[in-house]
Amino acid sequence: MSLDQYLPVLLFILVGIGVGVVPLLLGYILGPNRPDPAKNSPYECGFEAFDDARMKFDVRYYLVAILFILFDLEIAFLFPWAVALQDVGATGFVAVVIFLAILVVGFAYEWKKGALDWE
């Protein structure tokens, strides 16, 4: 093998690094740098931070995040199934109905346990 075969790959890597690094360097060199106490102060939700960064969060935040991921993945699995519905036939349709039924049962369980109540 000659090195000529690796030239496009090397060029691609160099251009990628250049596209990532050159704008950062230009912004650092050409951009204004006038820090003042207001810019360097901590900012969190419109008021000063009042507690440790490692404070405990309510478990409902995690439950909502898990439910979002669950239903986001459900949609991600339904798109390819919808595209290939003609090819998978009745067997694929039944498999997706079972998949959705399991997710609906899980959603009903979460709803009944009050995971979706935000009070």
Written account of the structure:
- The protein has 119 residues and is mainly α.
- The chain has a single domain, classed as NADH:ubiquinone/plastoquinone oxidoreductase, chain 3 (Methane Monooxygenase Hydroxylase, Chain G, domain 1, Up-down Bundle), CATH 1.20.58.1610.
- Helix content is 69%, strand content 0%.
- It has helices at 7-30, 37-40, 59-83, 85-113.
- Helix 3 packs antiparallel against helix 4 (85-113).
- It is flat and about 60 Å long.
- The mean pLDDT is 82.
The CATH C-level name is Mainly Alpha
User: How much beta, percentage-wise?
Assistant: under 5%
User: How many domain regions?
Assistant: 1
Coarse structural class = mainly alpha
Task: Calculate Rg over CA atoms.
Answer: 26 Å
Order of helices and strands: HHHH
Report the uncertain regions. Answer: none
Short description:
With 119 residues, the chain is mostly helical. The protein has a single domain, classed as NADH:ubiquinone/plastoquinone oxidoreductase, chain 3 (Methane Monooxygenase Hydroxylase, Chain G, domain 1, Up-down Bundle), CATH 1.20.58.1610.
What secondary-structure arrangement, pairings included, does this model have?
Layout: H1 7-30, H2 37-40, H3 59-83, H4 85-113
Helix pairs in contact: 3-4
